[in-house]
Amino acid sequence: MAVSYSYAWTCGLKTFTPHWCLLLAFLFFCFGCKTNYENLPAYSANKQVQVVVLTPAGTNHPQSYNPKSQEFEPQQNAGLAEEIKFLPFPGNFGFIPSTDLRINNLSTSKPLEAIVLAEQAPVGTIYETTPLATLLVETAGELKYIVVAVPSRPSEQIISATDLASFSANYPAAKEIIQRWFIAAFKHKSYKFIGWKDERFTEQLIQKYLK
Description:
single chain; alpha+beta; Inorganic Pyrophosphatase; five-stranded mixed barrel; two-stranded antiparallel ribbon
């Protein structure tokens, strides 16, 4: 004789069949999972450099990523949420996952920073990008690298450049704006402009700081 499993289980004040309990457990497991964005691959399956967006273009409120809680949080300055007292971010600012600058004598883990020149994207967006160049600035006697990139997908591009040469030739004003913006927006950190490095330097930089 076949055994029937149509009996009900009582979960709290509601009654569920075993199938519903399994479904609820599955949903709880899925929604309870979090992505560790810092440990995502630096390169996508298409061999494109990935960038995780922290701060969308057009905002003055920088965000940071907490790898312990795996949450995006407002960036702190003296215990308060930081606000850029200048024009908003000119691109989607974030980081290249699976890179770590700690090898450069930093006391804490810190991934390579990057800015993606595209329309505003939500926090947590993962871009496949084509790095154009690296902006070098100095603060407190240390070099700071900011990778400048565009989305790899043509449908997401607003700037048609593939390297530093084409970026400099076709978008000289955009290049100057980015350079001047980082110096002026982070004036409190005393950024000093050092120079631009091309896409070959940028690729070597990413490789150097891969985890």
